[in-house]
Specification:
6-stranded mixed beta sheet; alpha/beta; globular
Length: about 110
């Protein structure tokens, strides 16, 4: 699963890609080559290597509130929590940051889910 943040005109927009892949989790930064910024309500960046994805945003973006998707998502969150990748205060989930050159296409680019 990839949370892609596209920067355009100084603003970021978060999109969820590969929502069915619950075996990996990253935050990819794409767009203008300047200091990345948080995306309110979706992603809070915590330095150059890690960011925190709002769990409620992730549930909405991935449709994980649907009965047939809820259990798999809960298992992923439990795995992340056992490794210290869930913020105990906010429930946000940590992802490592992958940076892309502004002109580079994203690997396996697909339409947002």
């Amino acid at each position: 699963m990839r949370v892609v943040i596209r920067y355009d005109g100084g603003r970021g927009r978060a999109e969820l890609h590969e929502a069915d892949d619950l075996t990996s989790f990253s935050i990819e930064l794409a767009g203008e080559p300047f200091a990345p910024r948080d995306v309110p309500g979706a992603v809070r960046l915590d330095g150059p290597e890690r960011g925190w994805v709002d769990r409620a945003w992730l549930v909405r973006a991935g449709g994980f509130d649907a009965p047939d998707r809820r259990d798999a998502f809960s298992a992923m969150v439990a795995f992340a929590d056992r490794h210290g990748w869930v913020d105990g205060a906010t429930g946000a989930i940590a992802g490592h940051i992958v940076r892309r050159r502004p002109d580079a296409p994203l690997n396996n680019e697909r339409s947002p889910q």
